[in-house]
Design goal:
about 140 residues, three-stranded mixed beta sheet
């Protein structure tokens, strides 16, 4: 296996830094913390480069993470995912696919449904015999 270069360390380190990844000590065990909305194949490649891909990992915005690790200094996070989605993501080998599918469906459900037609204009009142009689009186 080829020796890793300084450029590779810098490039993959930037990926981890830009995603706000952190190492946490939880219950005496080293755990990799990842923001669920920033998880991606590229992020997992960066973890593999540093050989942290075998460490246990948890979503920083998930349950059971101490508050001291939840300070966020990276973009995103305005719309946190429901816990049920985070749990499905953690069980998946491609969690970003689970997340993106949830977001796609959520956006689809939030779109207003256009009516296929416009309301018809109110119909003009029909002339009745009384209206006609009144018109005849004016002459």
């Amino acid at each position: 296996m080829a020796e890793k270069t300084d450029e590779e360390y810098a490039r993959w380190g930037k990926v981890l830094s830009d995603a706000g990844v952190r190492l946490m000590m939880i219950d005496g065990q080293m755990v990799v913390g990842i923001w669920s909305d920033l998880d991606s194949p590229r992020l997992r490649q960066a973890l593999a480069f540093y050989e942290n891909n075998h460490e246990p990992w948890r979503y920083l915005d998930g349950p059971g993470i101490p508050d001291k690790y939840k300070t966020r200094n990276v973009p995103g996070g305005e719309n946190p995912l429901p816990i049920s989605v985070l749990m499905r993501m953690q069980q998946s080998t491609e969690p970003w696919v689970v997340r993106d599918e949830f977001i796609r469906i959520k956006h689809w459900l939030q779109k207003p449904v256009p009516y296929p037609f416009k309301s018809p204009a109110p119909a003009a009142p029909e002339n009745t015999d009384d209206d006609q009689a009144g018109a005849d009186d004016k002459e």
